[in-house]
Amino acid sequence: MQPNLKHLFLLDPNIHYMNHGSFGACPRPVFEDFQNWQLELEKNPIDYFTRQVRGLFTRDTGGPLEEAREALARFVNADSEGLIFSPNVTVALNAIAFATQLEPGDEVLTTNHEYGTIQATWERKCKSSGALLRVVPLALPVTTQADLVELFWEQVNPRTKVILLSHITSATALILPVEDICHRARQAGIITIIDGAHGVGQLNLDIEALQADFYTSNCHKWLLTPKGTAFLHVHPSQRESFEPMVVSWAEINQPSFSLRHEMWGTRDMAAFLSIPKALAFREQYNWPARNAEARSLVIESRIKFADILGSELLCDESWLPQMASVLLPEKTNPLELWNHLWDDYSIEAMITRWQDKPIIRLGFNAYNTPDEMDLLLEATSRYLQQNALI
Ligand SMILES: Cc1ncc(COP(=O)(O)O)c(C=O)c1O
């Protein structure tokens, strides 16, 4: 077992931070790099925006922002020209909804495991265009990835225009077999949109191989960058018709595809500029090994939880990233349990509902220890016992 790395993070040493998945956590050196970029900006905002970071009013697209884009593109095996920096996945998915043309009768196919606000975005989009959002129920426990692909694909019909899927589902923490579905959809001429909010830094992303039309991911979760750092990759076949949601100087100057989509007037890009530092930090501390160790702790933990709760495992290990969810007893009040963990134990944990069922999502990182995992288990079971729920 490798030494614990909590001291490298800015996390309060007095709390047990056991929910990396919601907002991530940023290591000190990466955060310092981010702040240095902000200080540079304030020394001479004109020089910073027009000459240093990129030539905003020229066609010069060189500079540190392009270096950050290149570094991230290499990391996810994507072409950098199609990679747009976005503040978060919510904005990226709204930008796609804005630009997608739907006609009355078209269908958008999705699942009942999608993130609430993303589903709401596409509900609104469908309503305003007369299209239908069709939600395919994926029952738990899931069986095999091949079964899921077949079950999902059975719902595709000639009206299916768009497929919208999470790469890793939010509440249920399952890696969905998006690659197979994207390949089939490309052959069938259906647009694929992958919500990879939890993807980058947790999965070995290969965007070239995935062949999604749109892939978006939050760097501020598992890549360890400061908040407000996401990307949207657009497949070459979609670039010509993909209209920017925000009109800016880029509309007039027509720089590169990515700049056309991310120039939003005055905008602090410091968080994006710290991406190379986050990648270097991960390399320095051999992050793939850290991920693997935290994932083992998650897997060990979900078995202990399921045993104590008498709850069935939701999937086999092949579905799991560095997170895993376990259903809680039906009558559990998620908010009350969440408050109990925080008020009595200083534990930050992810307790929510999926389809009205209370659920706990375990999502650890290199700053968590087996002792903390035991404390979470003890605190949860004590609450459930006190409330006669187990
Ligand atoms: C699957 C999924 N999609 C989208 C989001 C939204 O991310 P953000 O709030 O950074 O836009 C989340 C957030 O946790 C998520 O889990």
Q: Round the mean pLDDT to the nearest integer and report it.
A: 95
Assign the CATH superfamily of the largest domain: Type I PLP-dependent aspartate aminotransferase-like (Major domain)
Strand residue percentage: 5-15%
Order of helices and strands: EHHHHEHEHEHEHEHEHEHHHHHHEHEEEH
Total count of strands: 12
**Percent helix:** 40-55%
Number of domains: 2
Bound molecules: pyridoxal-5'-phosphate
Backbone structural class? alpha/beta
Question: Which consecutive residue ranges, at least 5 long each, have pLDDT under 50?
Answer: none
Q: How does the major sheet shape up?
A: 7 strands, mixed
Radius of gyration: 22 Å
- CATH T-level topology of the largest domain: Aspartate Aminotransferase, domain 2
Broad CATH class of the largest domain: Alpha Beta
What's the architecture of the largest domain in CATH terms? 3-Layer(aba) Sandwich
